[in-house]
Amino acid sequence: xxxxxxxxxxxxxxxxxxxxxxxxxxxxxxxxxxxxxxxxxxxxxxxxxxxxxxxxxxxxxxxxxxxxxxxxxxxxxxxxxxxxxxxxxxxxxxxxxxxxxxxxxxxxxxxxxxxxxxxxxxxxxxxxxxxxxxxxxxxxxxxxxxxxxxxxxxxxxxxxxxxxxxxxxxxxxxxxxxxxxxxxxxxxxxxxxxxxxxxxxxxxxxxxxxxxxxxxxxxxxxxxxxxxxxxxxxxxxxxxxxxxxxxxxxxxxxxxxxxxxxxxxxxxxxxxxxxxxxxxxxxxxxxxxxxxxxxxxxxxxxxxxxxxxxxxxxxxxxxxxxxxxxxxxxxxxxxxxxxxxxxxxxxxxxxxxxxxxxxxxxxxxxxxxxxxxxxxxxxxxxxxxxxxxxxxxxxxxxxxxxxxxxxxxxxxxxxxxxxxxxxxxxxxxxx
Length: 431
Ligand SMILES: *Cc1c(COP(=O)(O)O)cnc(C)c1O
Hints:
431 residues; alpha/beta; 7-stranded mixed sheet; 4-stranded antiparallel sheet; 16% strand; binds pyridoxal-5'-phosphate
């Protein structure tokens, strides 16, 4: 006997409007907007059509598949052990910075004086916090990112002139981004001095002439030179009669004993840099931003250049950066300093919960993001079969580990302890 037609699931696909009218979808419709909810409805309807879903479960399925926010950016658990992972958004913001960012999302007094009702300097609170964090700077300024800070400095100081630059520091930052291309785009000409492995101060001296706009010193943030090599320290390049621009990259405010060899902004200023440029979302631990610090009259020239307007940061960045500077210790600083024994204990507890599939193994993390390239951060990881790496990334929330030597390592350095339970749950779901 033929099956009655009414039980054919394809016949029972609930119409889109009927699903969207379900009271349980009213709140998501208001919060996420119609297009996102409708596309989740379409996916569920498709499952019904293929017979994989009972028509009565459409609304529940839609609810379970809706994203948490109306963005395709998916928050992930960073179990790579790399603190500043460029592909995972570099520095995670502190709670204080996240809350500041949300508070600034509506109308705010970013350029308004509430006492007088008149216009006020943009980002004044953030710049004050940055000045206080860098007492050696005559003045400070903030732009979109580290590259923008360097672009502005070179444009103002060396457009139509020469940038005196050691061959050992003409570098690629990553993903094909080469600093010489950025500098050339300003209309400055590069005068290369020294050799790839050795540059001495006389190389710079002999290149100085009327057409010299600035000396540029770039901290080798993502590699180290060893063997028969020499570079000229900041100290020896200051006072040569040409402004000295130092790109420190990492945005470290002061020396950090945990990261030996990583140049910081304060040291560069004390050693005589006229302008220092750095990123906000590397070791500073804040939002993407470009930090500029240096001699007051030079910073004023940078701030007044027309290009500064094109490179300026928005209110969200200003808010998050200020909170990073005056707020509690950043997650970046906390994870770099994570206690090794605590990491091991957390791994052991997770491995016990997971059973024989998981092992505890030593794991070297890294600062990453073009910082402290040769400083390993010793820690511990949970070692799993490599085949779990892809399903863990597909889990919600995704767990991103490190695939190495045929295993999938989950390094807990950058995983907040309160997410250990989520890791256990994710691995179980993938087993
Ligand atoms: C990271 C880095 C940059 C680029 O900074 P962004 O903030 O990524 O634009 C420039 N110079 C150095 C030395 C760096 O390490």
